[in-house]
């Protein structure tokens, strides 16, 4: 027998174990990346979404301990996504929904398969029912280039400041660019936030390419419209996400405008019947109805499409939202921050001169599109409009604290001023004043 045989056997065993505990080589293309969460509007649930470059099983292992084994398992599905660019790059998008989560409890999880696992992440399951105070980070227009607000948002997330994120359209600039590599880069950038908080979205104009295919494939929102429009409940609020883009890209189908409008009306009717439990109705859509920016965007025109509808009369949203008493409307698109006085049809409907946001007689609009992207900030007109209360041309994002059924706190964080709060306002609506919508 050769004296080198025992040594050779040892080397083989070392190599065997170095390839993985189960003896399966870890393929870098099978390693999960771009991990992010969303809330499927099922109490006690959370959806985990991630990407691989080869088909693999879809599993999430989770538990309560930071270290040691993760005893709970959930399986899901993987769908191939082929980008519409020249290279026709193929990604595999994995979705697994965790159920039976304890409200308010922190979980540790990892996702993937025996071919490759992600690192461990943490999230806190959303609390159940209307009697708690959700804290949301709200912004739009965040790019892979110049994402100015992202480092501060990451720090806020690590400190446990939020329960969810609302990204009000326009991602990456653009997710389809460079054969969707920019989309990959962006999803990796937001992972430290989005893998720890439900990252709720709506489409913007920068997602339009190939019929919004990157947006539809990469995010997992509630409902069955691939994230174009949906709603969900959180604490004392009902939040409605919708697409302003159906009004502008009619070549994808005019029927989408009508379908969304009728869905919105039915959802608002249902939300109003539930006002006693969830008094606040909040909408999020990308392009605003109003703005005082110095450009030629839709919101600068008196008869804006989102406000008045197609041809100035078909499926306009201002009358619909006013009819059903929407309290707060969140927008982006303009790369700035603007808070409006309570407004309807260009008329200011303040609650009173001293307390304009207490019992306002019209909805409040917030435009928050200054998170940072390659297009930089948007200028305002020299003189503010009479319906414009506050204008901030600085990078930043919005904090929305839905304290209870009568009070909502809105703050604008300036990244230019090292996190200084540059706008701070309370909305107050006593429950008695909501009976008009029931």
Automatic annotation (TrEMBL):
Purple acid phosphatase C-terminal domain sequence ranges: 362-423
Domain Calcineurin-like phosphoesterase residue range list: 135-337
Catalytic activity from the UniProt record: a phosphate monoester + H2O = an alcohol + phosphate
Statement: the UniProt record of this protein carries the keyword Glycoprotein: yes
Keywords: Glycoprotein, Hydrolase, Signal
Signal peptide range in chain numbering: 1-23
SUPFAM superfamilies for the chain: Metallo-dependent phosphatases (SSF56300), Purple acid phosphatase, N-terminal domain (SSF49363)
EC number of this enzyme: 3.1.3.2
Molecular function GO terms recorded: acid phosphatase activity; metal ion binding
Coiled-coil intervals: none
Hydrolase is among the record's keywords: yes
Residue ranges annotated for the Purple acid phosphatase N-terminal domain, each copy included: 32-124
Highest rank taxon of the organism: Eukaryota
PANTHER family in the record: ACID PHOSPHATASE TYPE 7 (PTHR45867:SF3), PURPLE ACID PHOSPHATASE (PTHR45867)
Recorded family membership: Belongs to the metallophosphoesterase superfamily. Purple acid phosphatase family.
Listed name of the protein: Purple acid phosphatase
């Amino acid at each position: 027998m050769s004296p080198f045989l025992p040594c050779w056997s040892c080397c083989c065993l070392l190599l065997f174990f170095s390839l993985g505990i189960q003896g399966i080589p870890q393929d870098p293309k099978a390693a999960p990346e771009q991990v992010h969460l969303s809330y499927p509007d099922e109490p006690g649930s959370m959806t985990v979404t991630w990407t691989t470059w080869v088909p693999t099983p879809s599993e999430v292992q989770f538990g309560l301990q930071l270290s040691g084994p993760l005893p709970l398992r959930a399986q899901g599905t993987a769908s191939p996504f082929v980008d519409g660019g020249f290279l026709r790059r193929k990604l595999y998008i994995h979705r697994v929904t965790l159920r039976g989560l304890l409200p308010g409890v922190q979980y540790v999880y990892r996702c993937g398969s025996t071919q490759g696992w992600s690192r461990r992440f943490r999230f806190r399951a959303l609390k159940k029912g209307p009697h708690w105070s959700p804290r949301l980070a709200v912004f739009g227009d965040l790019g892979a280039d110049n994402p100015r607000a992202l480092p501060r948002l990451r720090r806020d997330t690590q400190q446990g400041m939020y329960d969810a994120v609302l990204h009000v359209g326009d991602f990456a600039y653009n997710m389809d660019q460079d054969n969707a590599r920019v989309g990959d880069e962006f999803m990796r950038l937001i992972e430290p936030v989005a893998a720890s908080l439900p990252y709720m979205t709506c489409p913007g104009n920068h997602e339009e390419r190939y019929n919004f295919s990157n947006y539809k494939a990469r995010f997992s929102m509630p409902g069955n419209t691939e994230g174009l429009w949906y709603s969900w409940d959180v604490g004392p609020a009902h939040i409605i996400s919708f697409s302003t883009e159906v009004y502008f890209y009619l070549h994808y189908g005019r029927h989408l405008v009508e379908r969304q409008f009728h869905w919105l009306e039915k959802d608002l009717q249902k939300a109003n019947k539930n006002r006693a439990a969830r008094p606040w109705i909040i909408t999020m859509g990308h392009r605003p109805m109003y703005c005082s920016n110095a450009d030629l965007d839709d919101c600068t025109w008196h008869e804006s499409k989102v406000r008045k509808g197609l041809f100035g009369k078909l499926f306009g949203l201002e009358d619909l939202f006013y009819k059903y008493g929407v309290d707060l409307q969140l927008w982006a698109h303009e790369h700035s921050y603007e808070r409006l006085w309570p407004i309807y049809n260009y008329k200011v409907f303040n609650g009173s001169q001293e307390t304009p946001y207490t019992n306002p007689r019209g909805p409040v609009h917030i435009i928050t599109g200054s998170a940072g992207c390659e297009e930089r900030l948007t200028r305002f007109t020299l003189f503010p409009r009479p319906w414009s209360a506050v204008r901030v041309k600085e990078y930043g994002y919005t904090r929305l604290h839905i304290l209870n059924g009568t009070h909502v706190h809105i703050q604008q964080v300036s990244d230019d001023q090292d996190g200084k709060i540059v706008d701070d306002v309370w909305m107050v609506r006593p429950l008695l004043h909501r009976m008009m919508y029931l």
